[in-house]
Amino acid sequence: MQVPATLMRPRTVPGRLVPFVAGGALFVVALPIFLIAGWSLKAWLLAAVLWVASEGLGVLLGRLKLGMDNTASSGVVAFGMMFRAIAVMIVLIAVASQHKALGLTAALLYAVAYTMQLGVGLVTFFATPEKPR
Known about the structure:
mainly alpha
């Protein structure tokens, strides 16, 4: 199986603002849906707080320098990125173990926001021009 050459060309790293706004917009759109449907606002708030905390940690980690000259900070970034996902899962599993509907609703909303942000991030990445050789 061959990967198209277009996908393998180096590109500049796009900004994080557009994917962040897309994920945040999903929470704004979800709030009236939760209100109209009568779903738990605690689930919406839990997912929103987890998403904002995860993004805040991502912003802090994004400020560290990466590369062979900065192996210590590269390791901190790698561990921090793994910690973000694991911490969110631990909180959601702990909540779901006590309140199934609350935990499941918050997990689904967080997953949709994360997927929205990831999708927009991929589109912006592949929409950026290729690096000159």
